[in-house]
Amino acid sequence: MRAWRKLLLLFWFAAGAVLAEAPEPQDPPEATQEAGGEAAQEARAAALHVLNRLAYGPAPGDIDLVVRMGPQRWIARQLQPESLPLPEALSARLAALATVQMPAGAVLGQFQAAQQAVRGEEEGAKEQRRAVLARIAKETAEARLLRAVASPRQLEEVMVDFWFNHFNVFAGKGQDRALVASYERDAIRPYAMGNFRALLGATARHPAMLFYLDNWVSKAGGLNENYARELMELHTLGVDGGYTQRDVTELARMLTGWTYAPRRLVDGNETFYFDARRHDNKVKQWLGRTVTAAGQAEGEMALDVLAAHPATAHHIAYKLAQYFVQDQPPAALVERLAQRFTDTDGDIRAVLQTLFASSEFMAPDVRGAKFKTPYQYVVSALRAAGAPLAPDSAKAALSVLNRMGMPLYGCQTPDGYKNTRQAWLNPDALALRIGYAVLLGKDADAAALYTALGPAITPATWRTVDTGAPRVQAALLLGSPDFMER
What we know:
mainly alpha; two-stranded antiparallel ribbon; 60% helix; signal; DUF1800 family protein; DUF1800
């Protein structure tokens, strides 16, 4: 708790609260409602828990909604996101972002035209290039942020973030600047709660992944092992999945010819093709199998084997349990999830159903056990404050994510961003969260914010917050230790 006390002191200093001149602490605004009996308090605590884990925290009215529906019914609706229509205002905002509506080839064409203009030394070409790159990056990131804050399909947004980190590509690498929007839209989002093998195949064949991990240039006599290695180590089997370096090399040979051609992508939006001329047609020995020449089918067979492998089931189960339950998830839960993954041939929705129905997920002692990543913190703060995500507020949110070390689509390494306390709890990061809480809290009402957060803010925290000047109380709530955990 010493670190959290230091955090609060830093926050008060940043917010300008003068504790020595503070008024007498008051009871929390919702004290009467929270005192409605143990059953009522437990119902609200359980509602908050599922909102913190399956969503990016509560928006105003969400806790009451989950209490009325019951957590399991609310979860069941979240598992069927297609049944939840998007608000018209959100749909209109997304429709106005051209980058996320355009085919991958069209965005790449704009990117290449800007690059070519620079090489041709045309007047103002560098400024034009910067403007094109900035627009592509801004619209791609703003679309994700808009959905995360305002979409009623909260679990879908959580799973898009989860899988993007699992199958990470770095938007700062060359052509991926233009391809990330399509990658999330076409290879991640449609499969976020579908079949794992389909998701695996969609990421394997998307030009963003082919470019990021260099498989698009891999060929017989010029092998590149990057994608093959990460396909086994990160995407499927896990680092302890029982494969060898020879298996990596042999898989890379099986995947030669899996590529795309930028010109064909721009001209006809062909996102993938198999180039038989690049393929290594010699016999391979992979994971104890003899693989004879079969062209593209070799790679598809490899994806089939990897998706169905017991090590993959365990690897995915562990990561899901870590994300939704606690940093060191219970081994028994992981085993049950792995078995469910195997029994359903990688049905992600079925695995999630088992996870959310488990006693481990709903156990009171795991509530608040997860520390929010910078992305989760920023999105949950925007949701709790009920702030409309205007262009200026979106720009501020994206800017603070950059400063916090978690720019959207900005993880350079293929393992993606971590979601553990150890990865994000440090003094510098906390100071940046404090600064953002001050910025966002300027236009927020503390009493309304407390009502929206309900049991997320303990009475003890409220009494501490209430010693601050009224103008900074909302900021103090958003910067409290209670709010930084989920």
